[in-house]
Amino acid sequence: MKANRREFWLDSIFGTAFIFLLMWTFYSVTAFKVFDLFDPIGDALGDVELTDVVFSQLREPAVPDDRIVLVNLGRVNRADIGYMIDIVNQYEPKVIGLDTYFRTPKDSAVDAIMEDAFSRVDNLVIGSILQNFNEEKLEFDSLGKSLPRFTQHAETGFVNFITDAQTQEELKMTREFTPKEMVAGQQELAFAVKLAQYLEPEKVDRLLKRGNERETINYRGNVMDFGASVYGTMFFALDVNQVFDQNFDPSLIKDKIVIFCFLGEYLGDRLTIEDKYYSPINSQFAGRSYPDMFGGVVHANIVAMILNEDYIDAMDDATGAIIGVLLCLINVAAFSYIYRVYSKWYDGATKLIQLVEVLGISFMNVYVLDKFNYKPELTIGMVAIALAGDSLEVYYSVVKNSVTGLFKSRKRKIKL
């Protein structure tokens, strides 16, 4: 009896190890692009997460956040940027952020107008770009900044987003951001973090004390998007002509965070994809056709999350892996029992159990994120469960029988 029990648990452990070996093999093969045939499907669905349904469908629309105002830069030149900043600055914003940077000189008169406007802003943040990540030092080698004549009147914050896209034309989904990065031994804060620091410095301190290298962006809404998301307007935005005509209530600006950024050729422009990203609140969360959120609005969502301290906590990779191994071992033990005792029912019973488990875990992931702002990471466990039934049959019929046969063959040779 003890021998049978010992053999049962050894098979369960070895079966679990075999499943994880298969998972590693599949991952390695996929990494080498063997399945290029399926790339069109991957392009449409590869960057979709089940939890997107929480952001795009389940949440109640958030109350518009009047602490953050966006100003569309459109295609204006540097002189016009200077004029627009002067107009906005007279209404006493808490801080002005420029989600762009100015690397090269233009016409000297035009640059002088913009520089002069910068010099009159009490709190100004200009975007910077993280460049050349050093794998050995785990930091960036350099920081792309605007010309010194502009940065002398401002602080900087990096505007890089975390995305797998290599070009503008590729799918660009941004779900996370890094609050800070090291650049040649110096700390640089993210653009949104720097802006929030002017309004609520103690909340930024608490964000940094969380110690997370990455934070999940808790998206709450967009500017006027004409149906790109299911929510109404979350952030107020001014177009170029509204600023020049001063067609806005001064209270919209006073003591607020004002982000100058590109929001299209005009407010509501859905065709321009420059500096535009897919977000989880996209109303078409699977097989997306158009990106729905400009970069400046992504920054605004991050600022709002910091000001509200409305963070999403995520399960760390190590915990997810441990839970995945345990889930796999439990399933292998259960399936091994069915294989030994109810072999005729094996295929149907294991498939049904797998289906119920995967659906149950999927529902739990969505529910936990929606209700508790916590994002479980059980992908390894779900893949292991999906592979367990068929893989265990291969283990018993091929792997174990082959090893057992080889062992018996060697034993007979020794006796001879």
Can you describe what's shown?
The chain has 416 residues and is an alpha/beta fold. The chain has two domains: 2-46 and 315-415, no CATH class; 55-311, no CATH class. The chain has helices spanning 2-31, 39-45, 52-58, 78-89, 108-119, 148-151, 191-199, 201-209, 240-244, 295-308, 317-341, 346-372, 379-415; strands spanning 68-72, 95-98, 124-134, 139-144, 155-158, 176-177, 180-183, 186-189, 215-216, 236-238, 257-261, 276-277, 293-294, 313-314, 374-375. Strands 1, 2, 3, 4, 5, 10 and 11 form a seven-stranded mixed beta sheet that branches. It has a two-stranded antiparallel ribbon with strand order 6-9. It has a two-stranded antiparallel sheet with strand order 7-8. Helix 5 links the parallel strand 2 (95-98) and strand 3 (124-134). The protein starts with a helix and ends with a helix. InterPro entries: CHASE2 (IPR007890). This is CHASE2 domain-containing protein.
> How much is the average pLDDT?
87
Regions with little confidence, pLDDT below 50 for 5+ residues: 32-46
Give the distance, in angstroms, between the N- and C-terminal Cα atoms.
31 Å
Specify the structural class.
alpha/beta
Biggest sheet descriptor: 7 strands, mixed
From the alpha carbons, calculate the radius of gyration and give it in angstroms. Answer: 27 Å
Strand runs, count:
15
Helix amount = 40-55%
SSE ordering:
HHHEHEHEEHEEEEHHEEHEEEHEHHEH
| Total helical segments | 13
Judging from the principal axes of the Cα atoms, what is the shape? elongated
Transmembrane segments: 7-27, 318-339, 351-368, 380-399
Domain CHASE2: 43-334
Pfam family, one: CHASE2
Organism: Imperialibacter roseus
